[in-house]
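Why do we care about 3D structure at all? Because function follows from shape, and shape follows, mostly, from sequence. That is the central idea of this module. The next example makes it concrete: a single protein chain, its amino acid sequence, and then its structure expressed as tokens.
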Amino acid sequence: MNNHLLFDFNVDKAAKTVYITREFNAGQSLVWDAFTKAELLDQWGAPAPMRAQTKYMDFKVGGRRFYAMISPDGQERWSVQEYTSITPKTNFKMYNAFADKDENRELPGSEWDHNFSEHNGITRVDITIYNESFERLEKLLEGFKIGFTITLKNLEELLGTLS
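And the structure:
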């Protein structure tokens, strides 16, 4: 097991952008699947004790994922992700916005750009999150780094069981 996997989280407030880089000790194809298949996303995509539950997902350009993060007491926080660009196994982009249970978006949202690359069995994922407003960026940063760090740790553990 490689204990020196890169994790980097940077915020450029002036650009309203978050930059995340994370390496995983798994092949690129498996890591890609973990980010693009609902049955895998639901296993790692929420920080414990919350859990992710996808209502539907259509991974294609113009397709959507509609899912909730559910707390132990049953409270749901819904999000809509619309896929805007897909280059299989190497890149996908999506527009993300919180929503209500009827899929009505809470604007503004954010644009996510995911890039995948592999070297010597280590897959690197670079994620750039551009927020439409500074206020959304500030709101996003309230707990986001902690929560997203936990979800990426969940993914690392899941990949270990799937490899």
